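Worked example 3. Consider a protein that binds zinc ion.
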Amino acid sequence: MWRFKLSKNNYEKLKALVRDREGYISRAREYFNIIGELPPAYGGQIHHVEWRSHGGGDREDNLILLSFQLHDRVHSASRKERKELEAKFLSYLSCGEVEKWRSEHREELEALYRVAEEEMEKKKRNGCLPKKPKWAAF
Ligand SMILES: [Zn+2]
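Given these inputs, the predicted complex is written out as structure tokens:
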């Protein structure tokens, strides 16, 4: 299955942007209100809300900075608890403060996405990508 994937370098840049997004007081407040803890000021890990293994893309609106403890919890939670946490993450990712940040960083984000899209187009032209995902073969 193909997923939206940035180059290693650009993914590092995107992760730095997500850290910057969570690092500011007005968004940290929203994060706290919705998720129940502050985003980690140092360390922590970037999580794909829709998991990479489920085709979740390297896009800013699918990424969130979590403490090690919370990240561990998401990946070991029961399905029900995971769904609850994911609903909170999505609600944070679509809150006004994050939307504002997103529009302020639109050009920067689109520049990163464009490279990945061009790569994909190139692969398609060279026939390196299946026309349909495997599960849609029949
Ligand atoms: Zn994760």
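Take a moment to read the result before moving on. The first strand starts at residue 45 and ends at 48. DSSP finds six helices and two strands in the chain.
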